[in-house]
Fold:
Amino acid sequence: MQYKMLGNSGIKASVVAMGTWVTGGGLTWDGVEDKESLRAIDAALAAGVNFIDTAPGYGWGHAEEIIAKALKGRRDKVVIATKCGIWWEDNRGAFHAHLDGKDVYISLRPETIQIEVENSLRRLETDYIDLYQTHWPSKEPDLTPIEDTMACLMKLKDAGKIRAIGVSNVSLEQLEENGACGPVASDQFRYSMLYREPEAHILPYCRQKGLATLTYMSLEQGLLTGKIGMDRVFKETEFRSNADWNAWFKMENRVKVLKMLEGWSDLTEKYSCSLAQLVIAWTAAQPGVTHVLCGMRTAAQAADNAAAGFLHLDEAEVARMRADAIALGDPE
Ligand SMILES: NC(=O)c1ccc[n+]([C@@H]2O[C@H](COP(=O)([O-])OP(=O)(O)OC[C@H]3O[C@@H](n4cnc5c(N)ncnc54)[C@H](OP(=O)(O)O)[C@@H]3O)[C@@H](O)[C@H]2O)c1
Structure:
């Protein structure tokens, strides 16, 4: 496994990181077996993963509780990243969405962050969070000045409740503003070979400033593992049926992705690896990418994904895969 620093925080975390949105379960992911989630965390750790990303919004605290259960007696071996800003206790903040039966708001007000951090510490059964990230930037009509949010996060850092500050889903301008207000260790954002927008500005900026980057949906929620065939149907309540985010899942696009993946059988053979490993290794090889978050529903997926942290692809093959992905064009 390769390990890289989380910016200038002094924290070293595995390049393949475990994402736990699916671990939260609920309608968004059509349920999950907690026992299997615990096994998945065990398998990831056994294979060298020491970095787990979560958020209160993943199963309304459930993912954080599962992580606490899995890490009993070995909390200090793991870098835990969680988040603040998705708020559902009351209507403070700006309305975000109706999800899994709850009205969800985005709030980066210091007053809600202070409540959130205590809730996360309690659910995670820990007295510190390694990386505390703002989940989404605040928005109208409840815009909190970045300066106020950062001041609150810096106070939490001074108090030892969090070790490093991260952001997620921010624009370049917001990232710069956060950095101007205090020490930002990392930026988390959507990035995959089929969603390369961050290559324009965010990735070069993070690379130049020495910020860690945590890429999410790099497996395009399973599509790039090749296991989601033309016959797989998602329920309306599942996130993967949301065509705004997942246009690649539409049948006319899915067929193209599956064909591209089939064309890489010589690569999976050469490296004796799975498609998931090939795609994770490709993502990790991109300039500016330091950590690849991978959702892992089962122990088998966790072991499979973690092994990608040992895989180095030849430059020519990285370029070939990029060319194939670009050739697919944008999803319709
Ligand atoms: N900051 C944000 O706003 C944000 C947004 C999205 C995600 N994230 C973070 O990033 C993480 C990763 O994103 P994601 O979970 O949405 O998507 P992802 O990692 O692209 O895909 C996860 C899904 O891919 C499938 N999968 C994973 N490994 C596999 C393997 N080896 N073989 C076969 N299938 C495999 C599983 O699907 P099945 O469920 O069908 O088994 C799994 O649920 C999240 O868990 C979360 O921590 C953050």
Notes: The mean pLDDT is 96. The two ends are 37 Å apart (CA to CA). The first helix runs from residue 21 to 24.
